[in-house]
Amino acid sequence: MDAKELLEKYKSGNCTDAEKAIVETWYLKFELERPGDLSDTELNDATDRIWNKLPVHEENPVKRRKLWSYAGIAAAILFVVSAGTYYLKPFSFNSHPALLKQTAKTEFPQILPGGNKATLTLANGRKITLDEAGNGRLAEQAGMIITKTKDGQLVYTVSDRGNLINGQTETNVISTPKGGQYQINLPDGTKVWLNAASSLRFPVVFTGAERKVSLTGEAYFEVAKAYPAKPFKVAAALQTVEVLGTHFNISSYSDEPAVKTTLLEGSVKVTVKTTSNPDVLLKPGQQSSLVGNQLHVNLANTEEAVAWKNGMFRFKDADLLTVMRSVARWYDVEVSYEGSLPARQFSGEIHRNINLSEVLDILSFFKVHFRVEGKKITVTS
């Protein structure tokens, strides 16, 4: 589709959200160069000149697309207010009623984003569905009270110190499904945010010389510093991360090519099991990647690593497989592929609180094609 075809599609009211964002960005660029109202003739005459200045224009079809430059506007720098009016910070289109009359349409079914969903499995086998449980006290184990707060967190607090020692062998597991996330305050006060399709195994009481938990999936940790003589350890896949008090993120999904540990504050030691890799001490802003049995350390994009915790998808030169794995986990859908994958790399951010249809609209603008049947998405060439 060339620039003039897209402009005609916009005028007829048949643009998707992503296409609408392109045209309105184009319009704004022209308006900033030539203030005042624009006639249809002026708009058409200027199309090619302005289009060439936009990121969407490209002679090389494999050129990287910047989501935040245009399509990601619907969920990043562009946002939607209740009236359906689009704004592009720091400018608005309020003064152009003709632009506001257009209504984007989508061909995709509405699949809602994920939310606070998790299951707590107690040491005795009892399962508590946290998103269905009421607020307040849920259970008591080995001198610990388990409470669900009004803002949807799970908190462990001491009720009987005399019984704490009896809980050293009792283990709880909190698990999130696809389309779920949850925050838990562990018995030592450590705060953990679990991403979708993740689980954390931890003792009801931290006794002995260390505080050790096991993770599958992804979690962000803010480790309590009140136990300087008792290091906090996270076992994830083939590695163990050891800290005293720090903020870090671990991504250890089985369908991702690497286990990534990203340090935001403090220091951590990463140890790899069954290999001759030396222990690695990470500094803030560094990330270790365990690929197979090999451990690598690089500078981290910390905003990208913890974007999920802050309600965002954030990508930096990510291929389509990487993007769709994140989408599948958060929207609880299955993704398959037909034909050859488009040679695309994506950089930018999209809010995780929008419907799946809006995400697919954004990706569709980059000549990525989808067929949606229920909760099954097929990416076609």
Properties at a glance:
transmembrane helix; Jelly Rolls; Ferrdict_sens_TM; 7 helices; 381 residues; 28 strands; FecR; alpha+beta
Tally of DSSP β-strands: 28
The average pLDDT is 78
Largest sheet at a glance? 19 strands, mixed
* Number of alpha- plus pi-helical segments: 7
Structurally, how many domains make up the residues? 4
Structural class: alpha+beta
Question: What is the share of helical residues?
Answer: 10-25%
- Oligomeric state, counting identical vs distinct chains: single chain
| Residues in β-strands, percent | 35-45%
Report, as a whole number of angstroms, the end-to-end distance: 17 Å
- Which regions contain 5 or more consecutive residues with pLDDT less than 50? 28-38, 47-106
**Mind telling me the C-alpha Rg?**
24 Å
> What general outline do the C-alpha atoms trace?
globular
